[in-house]
Amino acid sequence: MTEKSDIPQGALDLLILKVVALGPVHGYAIAQRLQQVSRDVVQVPQGSLYPALHRLENRGLLTADWKQTETGREAKFYRNPCTFSQVRSPPTLCTSTHNPLICRSSRHNP
């Protein structure tokens, strides 16, 4: 039976986006990071994490590429489709087709 998380779907999505905003990361590392920063309060089972990652990828909020991990294994690395310069400014209207909630138009940056 697939294990489910007690975290509501929207909250899990936001937590994942927050971790991925720090840079490209694979799914297992996302779960580890969430557990680490929450001091073991947040433990996201695979049965909740990977469907959430796929949902975010399908919505265009994440992009993913297969790369080698530090241990030499192939893993899907997730990242924000926007560049750092697009997400550092305060929220404004977005001209990006990838992520209208997070991206910022480059013409609005300082």
SSE order and pairing:
Layout: H1 9-20, E1 25-26, H2 27-37, H3 46-58, E2 63-68, E3 74-79, H4 84-87
Antiparallel strand pairs: 1-3, 2-3
Helix pairs in contact: 1-3
* Average pLDDT rating: 80
CATH superfamily of the largest domain: Winged helix-like DNA-binding domain superfamily/Winged helix DNA-binding domain
Q: What fold name goes in the CATH topology slot of the largest domain?
A: Arc Repressor Mutant, subunit A
CATH class group of the largest domain: Mainly Alpha
Largest sheet: 3 strands, antiparallel
What keyword list fits this structure?
single chain, 110 residues, alpha+beta, Arc Repressor Mutant, subunit A, 2 domains, three-stranded antiparallel β-sheet, 4 helices, 36% helix, disordered C terminus
What is the compact description of this entry?
This protein has 110 residues and is α+β, with helices and mostly antiparallel strands. 36% of the residues lie in helices and 13% in strands. Strands 1-3-2 form a three-stranded antiparallel sheet.
